[in-house]
Design brief:
Layout lengths: L2 H20 L3 H6 L11 H21 L5 H23 L3 H25 L1 H27 L9
Length: 156
């Protein structure tokens, strides 16, 4: 693996991670009704650190392969949606708008996983936990909207 490419993709992930540091859950999120299966707070930074390392490694593996342009374009789209979700949900408290972002994120991650897998099986596998985590996050986003209709009004 090209370590310079890995570092470059990891820096892109770091920009997305920075939104998590800037827009933490806070009192607003803590006050929301959440399903019993909501992951504990300590799991989020552990999961995201692991996922960002896997995402960067997968992209670095694919970046050196011929015909990787579309796959890397999908990677760029997913990291953009990833970066956007946290400020929309935690910063603006726009749960419905965040759900729309989440749908875009899920589709972009799925497209990235498939396109990576077609080029490099290991890269595709490295993206699989991310798709699972985004599926859980999307389900959580949707469930929080359903459990808190007064907080997810028409303006959201």
């Amino acid at each position: 693996m090209d370590l310079a490419l890995f570092a470059t993709f990891l820096v892109a992930c770091g920009a997305a991670a920075a939104t998590g540091a800037m827009f933490g859950p806070g009192e607003w999120y803590l006050s929301l009704k959440k399903p019993w299966w909501t992951p504990p707070g300590w799991l989020f930074p552990v999961a995201w650190t692991t996922l960002y390392i896997c995402m960067a490694a997968a992209a670095a593996r694919v970046a050196v392969l011929p015909g990787s342009g579309q796959a890397l374009a999908f990677w760029a789209v997913q990291i953009a949606f990833n970066t956007l979700w946290t400020p929309v949900f935690f910063g603006l408290h726009r749960m419905k708008a965040a759900m729309i972002v989440m749908v875009g994120l899920w589709l972009a991650v799925a497209a990235t996983l498939v396109s990576f897998a077609l080029l490099d099986g290991v890269a595709g596998l490295l993206m699989a936990p991310y798709l699972l985590w985004v599926t859980i996050a999307g389900t959580l986003n949707f469930t929080v909207i359903r459990l808190n209709p007064e907080m997810a009004g028409a303006s959201n």
